[in-house]
Design goal:
The chain contains four helices and eight strands, in the order E-H-H-E-E-E-H-E-H-E-E-E. The chain is an alpha+beta fold. The protein has a single domain, classed as Aminopeptidase, CATH 3.40.630.30. An eight-stranded mixed sheet has the order 6-7-5-4-3-2-1-8, sandwiched between helices. Bound molecules: coenzyme A (COA). Coenzyme A is lined by residues 22, 28, 82-84, 89-95, 115, 118, 122-125, 127-128, 131.
């Protein structure tokens, strides 16, 4: 059973090795590998509207954040970032988090979700986001310097969410940063 709930400061401490490894790999996120712990915590836990963890009986599986992608006339579009701990990959954690994030975005009044720079060589992510309804709406040629592949393209991916009903019950959210949602997923892998 994958449980998704609000991230605490202690959770970020447990998540840091994954965050640090993902950023340090320079294969998926356009973040400075030299980011300090405090800068990472601010970016992932403090600045977003919501920051959540996925866990299974106390084992941290991954984390995601939700925030507005832009301000003013663009603030109805949300943005998320997802990371799954290496040992938990291929078990449907990212799928569960992305599905959860879309419901939470609707609850927060967002009408759409945009991923600004999905690295095109990140095949698992691109395929998963497409399966979950995101369209590739743009390609940024050679916008990412991949640690192993050199300059690769980034994809802008977008999903209009407002055709989905807002999920009221069971509550995804009780107060800010207090998530109660359980997503049952049984995976053979
Ligand atoms: C990308 C990432 C989030 C995926 O997490 P995950 O929990 O392993 O993903 P899931 O198990 O939910 O789903 C993986 C899906 O991709 C599919 N997949 C795996 N490798 C694939 C590949 N090379 N090509 C196409 N599909 C692939 C799986 O079959 C699965 O599809 P399904 O749900 O239809 O069975 C994870 O690898 C990660 O954290 N990577 C580093 C950070 C990152 O890339 N974040 C996303 C930035 S856009």
């Amino acid at each position: 059973m994958i449980t998704i709930r609000s991230m605490t400061v202690e959770d970020f401490e447990r998540f840091w090795p994954t965050f640090h490894a993902v950023v340090g790999a320079r294969e998926t996120y356009a973040l400075d590998p030299a980011l300090t712990y405090e800068q990472g915590r601010q970016l992932w836990l403090e600045l977003p509207l919501h920051s959540l963890v996925a866990e299974d009986r106390g084992e941290l599986l991954g984390a995601y954040y939700l925030k507005a992608n832009a301000a003013g006339p663009g603030k109805h579009v949300s943005n998320c970032g997802y990371m799954v701990c290496e040992a938990a990959r291929g078990r449907g954690v990212a799928r569960a988090m992305c599905e959860h994030s879309q419901k939470l975005a609707r609850q927060e009044g967002f009408l759409a979700m945009q991923f600004n720079a999905v690295v095109a060589s990140n095949e698992a992510a691109v395929a998963l986001w497409q399966k979950l309804g995101f369209e590739i709406v743009g390609r940024l040629p050679k916008a990412y310097r991949h640690a192993r592949l050199g300059l690769v393209d980034c994809l802008v991916m977008y999903k209009w969410l407002a055709d989905e009903p807002v999920v009221e019950k069971p509550p995804l959210l009780i107060g800010r940063k207090n998530i109660e949602a359980r997503v049952s997923r049984r995976r053979g892998r």
